[in-house]
Amino acid sequence: MREALILVDLQNDFMPGGALAVRDGDQVAAPANRLADAFDLVVATQDWHPRDHESFAASHPGKQPGEVVDLHGLPQVLWPVHCVQDTPGADFHPALNRARITKVIRKGQDRQIDSYSGFFDNGRRHATGLADFLREQGVTTLYVLGLATDYCVKWTAIDAVRLGFTTWLVEDACRGVGLQPGDIPAALAEMQRAGVARTTVEAVLRRRG
Ligand code: VGL
Ligand code: ZN
């Protein structure tokens, strides 16, 4: 029964001042480091888009961030340009302890489809390799934290359950976008309905630290 910690998208563009800033997103770095010290297997996901990614409003003349379009058959929220491959905005937060990260999983590289989950693109057409990696490592239980609660954290945690992992959301080490009021509590409820269990940084440290 091996356990792994999954750090979702702790990247500069999701931090205050970044291109797709998540409120208080930077407050997740310190608890992420504390937890990472308590796990022998730490995986970080990284949103990693080409500059012309079709999830960007800038790729759709006349459209603004926050609008929803049909993108090759899937509903797509349009975002500001963010996490462009090999730019500082796509780097991990500078305070994040990179030395504890065993594996980095990059996602969102196909310009035609977004990838909120760390496991699959939004159409579940292509796997990122995260599930295979975790299974090879003998992992059965995941602790998920990071950004953003209502997008990449939510879909990573829900896919983890669907794939058969026992999945814990480290709720106080997540922050959300909250495009609409109520989106963050709705995401927590959706995860809970899907079978994601909820815990806190202190509870995980008491058990593992
Ligand atoms: C994310 C929107 C667009 C996330 C990534 O990390 O939650 N949200 N790309
Ligand atoms: Zn993105």
TrEMBL record:
The keyword Transferase does not apply. NCBIfam families: PRK11609.1 (NF008623). One of its GO terms (biological process) is pyridine nucleotide biosynthetic process. Its EC number is 3.5.1.19. This is Nicotinamidase. Keywords: Hydrolase, Metal-binding, Pyridine nucleotide biosynthesis. GO terms for molecular function: metal ion binding; nicotinamidase activity. Pathway: Cofactor biosynthesis; nicotinate biosynthesis; nicotinate from nicotinamide: step 1/1. Belongs to the isochorismatase family. InterPro entries: Isochorismatase-like_dom, Isochorismatase-like_sf, Isochorismatase_Nicotinamidase. Residues 4-201 form the Isochorismatase-like domain. Pfam families: Isochorismatase.
